[in-house]
Write a structure and sequence with these properties.
The protein is mainly α. It is built from five helices and three strands. It has two domains: about 60 residues, no CATH class; about 80 residues.
Length: about 150
C-alpha cells in the first residue's frame, strides 16, 4: 500500500496530532518508516490495521450519499433581495449611529472644556475676592490704628 506523511495519516485516522503521537507513534502501535532522510512516512496498511477504516473513505461515501444541489427559484431570489435590502438598511443605521456617537463625543469634549474654563474663572474670582477682603481689612486696620 502507499506511504503517506504523518499529517496525511493523522487526517486519515481522524484524531488529533498530539493523541496520534502519544498513543500510537511513541508507544510503537504504528510503525513509522523513513524513506527520505528526516521525513517520516506511514504505510496506509498500518492505519487500516490500527483504525479499521480510513477517514477519507468515510468522507467519499458521505459525498456519494449527499449530493449538493443548488436550486434557485423566484421565492429564493426574492428572499435574497429582501435580505440584501435589510442588510443595506442595517448598515445605514449603524453608520448613522456611529456618526451620532462621534457628535456626542465632540459635544462632551466641548462641555468638558467649558467646565474647565469656568473652573478657572471661578478660581480667579475667588482669588480676587480674597485679595479685596485682605485689602479692605488692612484699610480698616489702618483707620483703627489712627483713631486708637
Amino acid at each position: 500500500m502507499p506511504e503517506v506523511s504523518i499529517s496525511k495519516a493523522i487526517k486519515m485516522a481522524g484524531i488529533s496530532r498530539q493523541h496520534f503521537y502519544d498513543a500510537y507513534i511513541n508507544t510503537g502501535k504504528i510503525t513509522v518508516n523513513r524513506s527520505i532522510p528526516k521525513r517520516p512516512v506511514i504505510d496506509t496498511s498500518e492505519i487500516l490495521r490500527v483504525f479499521g477504516r480510513l477517514s477519507e473513505d468515510r468522507q467519499q461515501e458521505d459525498n456519494k450519499k449527499m449530493p449538493i444541489v443548488f436550486k434557485t427559484d423566484e421565492a429564493t431570489n426574492t428572499e435574497i433581495e429582501r435580505l440584501r435590502a435589510e442588510n443595506f438598511g442595517l448598515k445605514s443605521l449603524v453608520e448613522e449611529k456611529n456618526t451620532r456617537i462621534l457628535e456626542k463625543d465632540l459635544e462632551i469634549e466641548r462641555q468638558r472644556e467649558r467646565i474647565s474654563s469656568l473652573e478657572i474663572r471661578y478660581d480667579r474670582l475667588l482669588e480676587d475676592k480674597e485679595s479685596k477682603i485682605k485689602t479692605n481689612s488692612s484699610y480698616w486696620q489702618k483707620i483703627k490704628s489712627i483713631f486708637s
